[in-house]
Design brief:
Layout lengths: L4 H10 L4 H7 L3 H4 L1 E4 L2 E4 L7 H13 L2 H9 L25 E2 L2 E2 L1 H20 L3 E2 L2 E2 L2 E5 L3 H12 L8 E5 L4 H9 L6 E6 L6 H15 L9 E4 L3 H7 L6 E2 L17 H7 L1 H20 L6 H15 L4 E7 L6 H13 L17 E3 L11 H6 L6 E6 L8 H20 L3 H10 L4 H10 L8 E6 L4 H22 L10 H14 L10 H14 L1
Helix pairs in contact: 1-4, 4-13, 6-11, 7-11, 7-14, 11-12, 12-19, 13-19, 14-19, 17-18
Length: 536
């Protein structure tokens, strides 16, 4: 029996219903299909979920053991079963509770590391730690995946709070990335942070060597202006980085969940330990809500259930994340990794093939830019794309509040347009008022029809701050967890990234001509030959 059978049966009875009919039947629908915690308000009334559907979804969360699995995660049980690890990134933003792993409270060690981070960040910010040419003016974070996307996203989101050195990020092994970032910086006043837990990530270490060579051309001791986020202290020492500038974290913090840990050091330097603590506090507040709120009133659970309804029940394969907040420009990319690396799996926890689809394709861009790029497909395309709008009621620029109101109006208008659409009769009337008639009027009218009945949700905050951002990120982390539990998969491994890395190492000698590439397919060998010829 498919765990979604009851929901599939219900969906079949309402598939032709218009969402507007739900509002007509229940004048208070917006209140009945929304939830609020603190400064985070989630409206899912513009979906085709009715009271019966919501009950079935909540029942599904209960039947699949979401609450028990949540409690096991917070208790430090090794719910990442394929790697035999606990999942406790939440411990880094914990405000005081004991957190136990293998019978030991991990919080004293975490607090000690956070204290070292805070001291180092303040030393850099105040000029007590200097470069060989004076006060540090720029910080370059070198990492990839979770060691890059989290800090980049948060640094941009919190840019209006930044009063420290300028932050820069290098991730791609493409030499152009390192070249372009370093080109505008002074090696004598730049701090480089190398973020790699194992200190072996090939992209990161290649870029670290490039940065060291760049710095060596101008300073006597390049390693004196390096710090590391790593647990491989032997390798960091060999690189020349002293132990006092090495900050580690445990294997129960996955890369895509690591922005709360020392991976966030660059952010802490940029905005200061105080605002970094607020970032933690917002996430900790969402953690408490997730642990304590009933499932039917629980924001992460509700986000997950709406996602399950759209993907597994209705078969919508993608979801657009649309922040109407320019400083959240990198949030869609961050969530893309968080969700697709976590829930893009093909087998269940016991290794059996999934009898249903796993997580959706997640993508998006900030509004209003996206309106002039891909909203055409969202409004009039043949595929339904559920949309998640993220919106702040207030901006942070009082003198530009009129622009923020225009931004807000556009966000609400887009969700309304997706809901209502425009009928053929309405489009025909518009064309008639433009002076068209007959066949030409009818032809033009058809191009202006919007089907409507396209689902969207809105996550509303009062204003973007480190605190509200922390809550948003934690909200989505827990949403991913809940979806993973319901799907019966492990959201905390990522074996899908390994094969390509292994093959890349084997292809390097083929590209430089030192290997013939025995066993490689004809396409790969043919491309390699053309590349060798072009580089000769």
């Amino acid at each position: 029996m498919n765990r979604f059978d009851d929901l599939l049966a219900h969906a079949a009875t309402v598939k032709d219903r218009h969402i507007l009919d739900l509002f007509a039947a229940d004048p208070d629908r917006a209140a009945h299909f929304s939830a609020e915690f603190g400064s985070w308000f989630f409206d899912f009334s513009k979906t085709n979920i009715d009271a019966t559907g919501l009950k079935l979804l909540v029942d599904l969360a209960k039947k699949t053991g979401v609450a028990a699995r949540r409690d096991a995660m917070f208790a430090g049980e090794k719910i990442n079963e394929t790697e035999g690890r606990a999942v406790l990134h939440m411990a880094w933003r914990n405000l005081g509770d004991t957190v136990t792993v293998d019978g030991h409270d991990v919080m004293p060690a975490l607090r000690e590391t956070l204290g070292r981070m805070q001291a180092f960040a303040e030393d850099v910010r105040t000029g007590r730690f200097t470069g060989q040419g004076g006060r540090i003016t720029d910080v370059v974070n070198i990492g990839i995946g979770g060691s890059d996307l989290g800090p980049v996203m948060a640094a941009i989101a919190c840019s209006s709070f930044a009063d420290g050195p300028r932050l820069h990020f290098i991730s791609n092994v493409d030499g152009a990335h390192a070249h372009d970032v370093l080109a505008g910086l002074n090696p004598e006043t730049t701090l480089v942070i190398v973020a790699s837990k194992t200190f072996t990530t090939i992209e990161t270490m290649t870029n670290a060597e490039t940065a060291r060579a760049w710095m060596a051309a101008k300073v006597a001791d390049p390693a004196a202006q390096f710090a590391a986020i790593s647990t491989a202290t032997d390798k960091t020492a060999a690189f020349g980085i002293p132990a006092e500038r090495v900050f580690g974290f445990e294997d129960w913090v996955g890369g895509r969940y690591s922005v709360w840990s020392p991976i966030g050091l660059s952010l802490m330097i940029g905005i200061g330990p105080g605002y970094f603590a607020e970032f933690h506090a917002g996430a900790a507040a969402m953690d408490r809500h997730f642990r304590q709120a009933p499932l039917a009133e629980n924001l992460p659970v509700l986000l997950a259930l709406v996602g399950i309804w759209h993907n597994q029940v209705l078969g919508h394969a993608t979801r657009a994340v649309l922040p109407y907040e320019q400083r959240l420009a990198r949030l869609p990319a961050y969530l893309q990794q968080l969700e697709m690396e976590s829930n893009g799996k093909r087998v269940s926890m016991d290794g059996a093939d999934l009898p249903y689809h796993s997580g959706p394709v997640v993508w998006g861009e900030p509004g209003t830019n996206g309106q002039h790029a891909f909203y055409q497909l969202i409004h009039q395309g043949t595929r339904v794309v559920p949309c998640e709008f993220i919106l702040a009621a207030r901006g942070r620029e009082p003198d530009l509040e009129h622009q923020h109101l225009l931004l807000v109006a556009n966000c609400l208008a887009q969700s309304e347009a997706l809901l209502r659409g425009r009928s053929l009769a309405e489009a025909t009337d518009i064309m008639a008022k433009k002076g068209l008639s007959g066949a030409e009027r009818d032809r033009q009218a058809r191009h202006r029809v919007f089907p409507g009945n396209r689902p969207s949700t809105t996550l509303l905050i009062e204003v973007l701050t480190p605190f509200s951002l922390g809550g948003i990120v934690a909200l989505y982390e827990h949403r991913v967890f809940v979806e993973g539990v319901i799907l019966g998969i492990n959201s905390f491994d990522q074996w899908g990234v390994e094969l390509g890395k292994e093959l890349a190492l084997a292809l390097a000698p083929v590209l430089d001509g030192s290997s013939e590439g025995a066993g490689k397919d004809g396409s790969t060998l043919g491309l390699a030959a053309r590349i060798r010829a072009a580089r000769a």
